[in-house]
């Protein structure tokens, strides 16, 4: 009886050792290129460096993010004093501000249909151009003194501004997502950094230009900057239309189907 027990214990020990040796096989590596003598497409361990073309694309998207948010942060600083100076009822100020957000709520969900139809480059360039024209037109309101002559154009411009904002910010994000598949975190971080720069520079630059040249000066600067961004994007961006195929993702289920690779639990 004791001999049989010892023999059974040895068999179990040898089986456990063989299983452990199989799991600790140096050929079984998820990060390597070779598994059991066969080539397996593994994930790249060293990411590719950012090309000059990608840097130019990131510069165009960063400029758009900075200038559009300079405009967003400048209007709340300058519009209320201008309304008070012209003697326009202050309740129009809230209506002018709310139409910008209303347009974003309406048009932002439509970008999933709009961008594949017109393409990322056209959307970016057109929206930046439209934004520049909006700010140039908004600056021209300094020459309107009646309530109707100021409030009605301001509401229309702000509504169109919300449309351009929704298209431009979405197209910029889509372009960065498509152009930086290996550096998405870095690219989006830089893009968001320029959003913060726009919110910071807007009141600083806008207030300085307002003190130097009046109500029209800051909007003239932001409008021309967005027009230049539209022209810059026209030369550096590529046109992407239609639905983009999803990139293949290796999961534990697909990886387990590769020959000689099994996950031991």
Nutshell version of this structure?
Helices cover 72% and strands 2% of the residues. With 265 residues, it is mainly alpha-helical.
Low-confidence segments? 1-6, 19-46, 245-265
Q: For the record, give the distance between the C-alpha atoms at the N and C termini, rounded to a whole number.
A: 34 Å
Please compute the radius of gyration using only Cα atoms.
29 Å
Largest sheet: 2 strands, antiparallel
* Rounded mean pLDDT score: 80
Strands in their spatial order, largest beta sheet: 1-2
Order of helices and strands: HEEHHHHHHHH
Query: Class by helix and strand content?
Result: mainly alpha
Shape, please? globular
Level of helix content? over 70%
Query: Strand share of the residues?
Result: under 5%
Quickly count the helices. 9
The number of E-state strands comes to 2
Instruction: Say what oligomer this is.
Output: single chain
